[in-house]
Amino acid sequence: MQQPQQAMSLHQKGILLTSLGGVLFTFDIPLLRLAGDDAWTLIFGRGVFLFLAITGWWFFWYRMRGHKVPFINGRAGLIVAVTNTLANLMFIAAVTMTTAANLVFILALNPIICAIIARIYLGERMHRWTWAAVFMSLLGVLIITADGLTTGTFFGDLLALGVALMTAIALTVIRKSGKNVVTSLAVGSLASALVASLWAAPLALSLAGWGWLGLNGLIAIPIASALIALGPRYLPAPEVAMFFLLDTFLTPVWIWMIFGELPTLVSMIGGSIVIVTLIAHSLWRFRNSRPSPAIELSPRRDGAC
Questions:
Q1: Which stretch of 93-102, 108-117, 203-212 has the lowest confidence by average pLDDT?
Q2: Sign, CA torsion 127/131/136/138
Q3: At 301, is the pLDDT very low, low, confident or very high (cuts 50, 70, 90)?
């Protein structure tokens, strides 16, 4: 009787972590737009801030408290560091080589790619309702982005697919290892900042711009990244990946509230499908959490939270 209760608790914790992380990620673009319009400077500043925030958290939370958690936590940490670095670099290139609609839709393939990799690598059998939720979420994203799907370039779309693939690999590796590898994300942030520094103009950004960028890179996105990175320790990786789809709906809402840009009816319809699907699936997982059909992995006691 104890085991089902523990499994349900782990699932509920995972859903809470990933949903909060997914919502925080939706503030990324609004905060960047408030900061300014020089993409390379924003990427540079955010990358540096993310690196400082994650590294500082690791040093004071773990090292100062005597926990021997390495900055790159084993092979899983190394893989996540490499995939995150590649994902950051490919994302920067994809933004300039394909349309935003194509980019968003291809990145939304993450749950599907993640489910396939998890099935092959972990042997996780996804429940039919989870598969239904994934496809319904993708339907919502398809509705949002349908108007822009024909205008992107092949190479940019290929890079976007690479970003989705790298993210799916990272989530699956975290799920398999059960380790806390949040600090590995700092490596990808620093690498992207170093690339962006070749074209960035930090002095051109206003003081207010740096303030918004700091709010983004020092608080919102580090917390969001940490929560998402912790998610696969409690949930199957494809389910964690589904929460990235919140970005396709909530970001336009924040843009409308802050900048007065009203989302189109098509975006609202597609976004509503995504939101309703994720809420319904999360409620179902809360009520029906069991050790099967997914593998229930208990978090490792390595000093991580």
A1: 93-102
A2: positive
A3: very low
Cβ burial, residue 131 (10 Å; 0-12/13-18/19+): middle
**Banded model confidence at residue 63, pLDDT cuts 50, 70, 90:** low
Q: What share of the chain is helix, strand, coil (3-state, %, to 5)?
A: 75, 0, 25
Whether the CB-CB separation of 115 and 131 falls below 8 Å is answered with: yes
d(CA 122, CA 117): 8
Q: How many other C-beta atoms are found inside a 10 Å radius of the C-beta of residue 270?
A: 23
- 300 pLDDT band (50/70/90 cuts)? very low
Please report the beta strands in 2-100, taking only residues with DSSP state E, as ranges in sequence order.
none
3-state secondary structure of 197: coil
**What is the Cα 301 distance to its own chain's centre?**
24
Neighbours of 59 (CB within 10 A): 12
Encoded amino acid at 141, one letter: V
- The phi and psi torsions of 265 (rounded to 5 degrees) equal -60, -35
CB under 8 A, 24+ apart: contacts of 226-229: 226/21, 226/54, 226/57, 226/182, 226/185, 227/17, 227/18, 227/20, 227/21, 227/24, 228/17, 228/18, 228/21, 228/22, 228/25, 229/80, 229/174, 229/180, 229/181, 229/182, 229/184, 229/185
Nearest of 240, 273, 167 to residue 21 by alpha carbon? 240
Give which of 224, 175, 171, 231 is closest to 13, Cα–Cα: 231
Q: What is the mean pLDDT of the chain?
A: 79
Does residue 5 register a pLDDT over 70?
A: no
Cβ neighbours of residue 35 closer than 8 Å, sequence gap 6 or more: 42, 45, 205, 209, 210, 211, 212, 213, 216
Q: Which residue has the higher pLDDT, 147 or 240?
A: 240
